[in-house]
UniProtKB/TrEMBL annotation:
SMART domains: PKS_KS. Keywords: Phosphopantetheine, Phosphoprotein. It comes from Sorangium cellulosum (Polyangium cellulosum). InterPro entries: Ketoacyl_synth_C, Ketoacyl_synth_N, PKS_Beta-ketoAc_synthase_dom, PKS_NRPS_Biosynth_Enz, Thiolase-like. The keyword Phosphoprotein applies. PANTHER family: FATTY ACID SYNTHASE (PTHR43775), SI:DKEY-61P9.11 (PTHR43775:SF37). One of its GO terms (biological process) is fatty acid biosynthetic process. It comes from the Bacteria. Residues 1-135 form the Ketosynthase family 3 (KS3) domain. Transmembrane segments: none annotated. GO terms for molecular function: fatty acid synthase activity. This is Beta-ketoacyl synthase.
Length: 135
């Protein structure tokens, strides 16, 4: 969504699609994740919980249609949310494959707030990534 929003802001497009898909087409990823003890024993992901013991694999897909707010209002579109800002980075070096890099995560949050011209108290929703694997 970050690149789609960037293209909308730059006037490169009038409408953008942001989507993703996860398909499990082969057993190898299950075997690998099991060997790493990354899969939850009960198949449930307990992200951000002290009881996190792995993640549950699943399939799915989603696509959202993005437009500039003024264009969506002009066109009478049903507006479900407004993206004020976004940012992308990579955690870089950390203590392990499943361990977050706090400094990198803080930096990307600060950049997203800056790009939206808002402060932490203005945020209503956060889309976060968390596997639920134990640290």
């Amino acid at each position: 969504a970050a690149l789609a929003c960037q293209s909308l802001r730059a006037g490169e497009c009038e409408v953008a699609l942001a989507g993703g898909v996860q398909l499990m087409l082969s057993p190898e990823p299950f075997v690998y994740a099991s060997r790493l003890r990354a899969l939850s024993a009960d198949g449930r992901c307990k992200t951000f919980s002290a009881g996190a013991d792995g993640y549950g694999r699943g399939e799915g897909c989603a696509v959202v249609v993005l437009k500039r707010l003024r264009d969506a209002e002009r066109d009478g579109d049903r507006i479900l949310a407004v993206i004020r800002g976004s940012a992308v980075n990579h955690d870089g070096r950390s203590s392990g494959l499943t361990a977050p890099n706090g400094a990198a995560q803080e930096a990307v949050i600060q950049e997203a707030l800056r790009s939206g011209g808002i402060g932490p108290g203005d945020v209503d929703y956060v889309e976060a990534h968390g596997t639920g694997t134990p640290l």
